[in-house]
Design a protein that fits this description.
Helix content is 16%, strand content 29%. The chain has 63 residues and is of the alpha+beta class. It has a single domain (4-62), classed as Alpha-Beta Plaits (2-Layer Sandwich), CATH 3.30.70.20. A hairpin with a 2-residue loop joins strand 2 (28-31) and strand 3. Residues 4-33, 34-63 form the 4Fe-4S ferredoxin-type domain. Keywords: Iron, Iron-sulfur, Metal-binding. This is 4Fe-4S dicluster domain-containing protein.
Length: 63
Amino acid sequence: MSSARIEVIEKYCKGCSICVEFCPKQVLEMDAFVVTVARPQDCIACMQCELRCPDFAIKVHKD
């Protein structure tokens, strides 16, 4: 399984939750109006969160 680190750039995140909805492993959650990485160990580096974010607020770094 791929190892990945998810970086959330909070100043860009507008709280749309698109990344949360597209994550197949429910790695992400909303905390107030900003996304958080709730289960980083479950990330499979599919890149859906980064690809779908309209504000470029999330980056997936494959290790």
